[in-house]
Amino acid sequence: MIKGIIFDLDGTLADTIKDLRTAVNAMLTKLGYPNRSLSDVTKFINNGARELIRRSLPRDVQNVEFILESAIRIYEEEYAKCYCEKTQAFGGVESMLMDLKGMGYKIGVLSNKQDNFVKDIIYKLFDRKIFNVVMGQSSLPPKPNPASALLAAKTMGVKPQKCIYIGDSDVDIKTAFNAGMKQISVSWGYRDEEFLKKSGASYIAKTPDEVVEMVKRITEDEELKIKK
Q: Does 42 have pLDDT greater than 90?
């Protein structure tokens, strides 16, 4: 039986891309490099801040370590100034979370974004009572390595096979499979339905209401398996 649901943040619960771009371009400007478009930044996200910044830099300096380290430091300083200026919850997401919480599921958040920003954004956008665990990037390897997902499940007191991981990217799909969790993708984020299908998504929800229905269906299917 499904008991826990873990959500990605960027592109799943909240639209964060404009603030990410602001910080990325502030960093690039300070270093004297060309700015990036919104579509560029959208392509570069999902693998953590370090990879976002590496990809945002001009190709010929992406692997120059001292430039990368300086860029990351500047980016974090800039993102701290703007991370909640334009970031907002996607429509219907708060009701989805409340519905799932009311149905008795434990709710978690796991992101490759820095931990302090994840917590601040979640607790500014939503009632903190909804969540059993909120985690960002730490000393553990980033998603799709399953270590952080397994820790999130353990913190909630739920076995991985009794969790559903929900996100908007191929990284989230791989994370769920690597952790032995069920998986739902959402198509309202930063990757379209066709991309998610090609990436092996088990289920694709077009709206938050569909997420609730899919969670019910997966739970019922798991209960039937147990009875058999």
A: yes
Q: Is the pLDDT of residue 34 over 90?
A: yes
Distances from the Cα of 212 to the Cαs of 140, 160, 172, 180, in angstroms?
A: 30, 19, 18, 21
Q: Say yes or no: do domains 4-15+87-227 and 17-82 share a fold.
A: no
- CATH classification of 17-82, choosing from 1.10.3470, 3.40.50, 2.60.40, 1.10.150? 1.10.150
Domain boundaries, the chain: 4-15+87-227, 17-82
- Residue 180 CB burial class (10 angstroms; 0-12, 13-18, ≥19): middle
- Which percentage of the chain shows pLDDT scores above 90? 92
Quote the mean pLDDT of the chain: 95
Burial class (CB in 10 A: 0-12, 13-18, 19+), 85: exposed
34 is written with which tokens? Answer: 């060309």
Spatial separation of the C-alpha atoms in residues 98 and 115, rounded to whole Å: 23
If you classify domain 4-15+87-227 with CATH, what class do you get?
alpha beta
Q: Which residues are identified as catalytic?
A: 8
- pLDDT given for residue 228 in this prediction: 59
